[in-house]
Design goal:
Number of helices: 17
Strand content: 5-15%
Radius of gyration: 22 Å
Helix content: 40-55%
Largest sheet: 6 strands, mixed
Shape: globular
Low-confidence stretches: 1-8, 14-36
Length: about 450
């Protein structure tokens, strides 16, 4: 049995996982030789690595790498991050045997790619020696057993973006608790606006809200995955947002799409529960509101608590078919730790760096003028320091998000309860994982 197969068994749970198949993914577009078995680059040999990413501004650090590492060129191919299109494309490439050398993959979907044997175990290449250069809990998101399957790039600690000018005009304070948020929603509605939207297809944000409430969707017991999507904290979140929806205190349109951007620009939606990377998104899509926004901590379920969560967070992975894996690893580490690379990524608005050093929190205030001069990144630095690090992801999250979106959309259309959404998707997720040959049980 290969080393990768052994690690995959650790990740996915015992003998049942072996039934899903243990063959490694095929060759990638790994260099001048066009694929084949992993190989060491000869001194002076010039190669090209392919890298699929959607990160804004990723071209600039890659261009810098290419200027300073002329023997190991990296070719970026931008992939769409709308509705998981990038992952569908990556999975298809893996199954066809022609994945890129490197890819941008969020923390939640790393296990899904491991299920396909798509990722190279970087531990034999010495990846662990870089561990202390990264925030501990983010490094651990891609460690399974003794295997290391990704290099962390950035996280997305959550907070509340709000139109301070409108809140001041309406006499509303930034809500520190979810009870206060509900009161603020009522006050905003009296002014003819809606405090937010419950975006039915945004499973990623819903997961962050559940995470903050203390949910634990995935766990393991021996060689069995425990799935508990409908645990009590998640029910609490579902009940809360269903109440806001039924009382028409929030909208229900998808966020980060045209209609939502219009509402953000006009003040029809004056807040957004977003992540640290949302600064660039707001500044880029609502330039007419420059100077009017502020960032505040995420509301708490208990007054005075410091419970926070993460929305998104990315890694750089080396696909199992990479022809020159050591060079690919060297690039991934440089991209995410070199101060000159981090500076360029920050300028592009990629999120909160996973690296411990190479930047200052103030460097992240790229859009400070848009936020009225506020040193807004301190809000997200504080949130990041208090993220519940016991949360772990399991296999099939990308499918789980799709199912949540479908079920929430249906519930909004036919009046079904949000709790029934959790029950439905819990059952679907158990069935999905069983079909993949995994041992799985309900946590309820």
């Amino acid at each position: 049995m290969t080393s990768n197969a052994m690690h995959r068994r650790t990740v996915l749970g015992g003998a049942a996982a072996l039934a899903a198949g243990l063959a490694l993914a095929g060759c990638g577009d790994g260099g001048d030789d066009g694929g084949g078995a992993p190989k060491e680059r000869r001194k002076g040999q010039k190669i090209t690595l392919t890298f699929w990413s959607w990160v804004p501004g990723i071209d600039k650090p890659v261009e810098l790498w290419n200027r300073t590492h002329p023997d190991v060129r990296v070719r970026v191919e931008k992939v769409s991050a709308v509705n998981g299109e990038q992952y569908a494309k990556m999975h298809a490439a893996v199954k066809a045997g022609n994945p890129p050398d490197l890819g941008q993959i969020e923390f939640p979907v790393v296990p899904s790619f491991l299920l396909d044997n798509a990722l190279l175990d970087l531990a034999p290449l010495g990846a662990a020696r870089h561990k202390d250069r990264f925030v501990g809990w983010q490094w651990q998101q891609s460690v399974f057993g003794k295997g290391v399957y990704a290099i962390p790039q950035a996280s997305g600690p959550m907070g509340l973006f709000l139109r301070q000018d409108l809140f001041d005009r309406w006499g509303i304070e930034a809500p520190a608790t979810w009870d206060a948020y509900e009161d603020a929603a009522k006050a905003v509605r009296k002014e003819g606006a809606w405090i937010e939207t419950f975006a039915p297809t945004n499973g990623n944000r819903f997961a962050g809200l559940a995470w903050q409430a203390g949910a634990r969707w995935y766990a393991t017991h021996g060689d069995t995955w425990i799935v508990h999507l409908d645990d009590e904290p998640t029910r609490r979140v579902a009940d809360y947002w269903e109440s806001l929806v039924r009382r028409k205190l929030v909208k229900t349109l998808p966020d980060r799409q045209n209609a939502w951007y219009k509402d953000v620009q006009t003040g029809a939606i004056p807040t957004w529960l977003g992540a640290s990377w949302g600064d660039a998104l707001l500044a880029g899509n609502a330039p007419g509101t420059k100077g009017k926004w502020r960032a505040a901590p995420m509301p708490q379920w208990k007054a005075g608590a410091k419970a926070f969560a993460n929305w998104g967070g990315s890694t750089t992975v080396v696909f199992a078919g990479a022809s020159y894996p050591k060079d690919a690893l060297d690039f991934a580490v440089w991209l995410n730790t070199a101060p000159e690379s981090i500076a360029l990524l920050i300028d592009g608005g990629y999120g909160f760096p996973s690296a411990k050093q190479g930047y200052a929190t103030a460097d992240l205030d790229v859009d400070r003028a848009f936020f009225g001069g506020q040193a807004y990144s301190t809000v997200f630095a504080e949130a990041g320091a208090h993220v519940d690090t016991s949360w772990r992801w399991g296999p099939g999250v990308d499918t789980l998000y799709q199912r949540l979106g479908d079920a929430f959309t249906e519930a909004l259309a036919d009046g079904g309860s949000f709790r029934s959404v959790l029950t439905t998707v819990q059952g679907q997720t158990l069935a999905d994982l069983k079909r993949k040959g995994l041992k799985v049980e309900s946590g309820g």
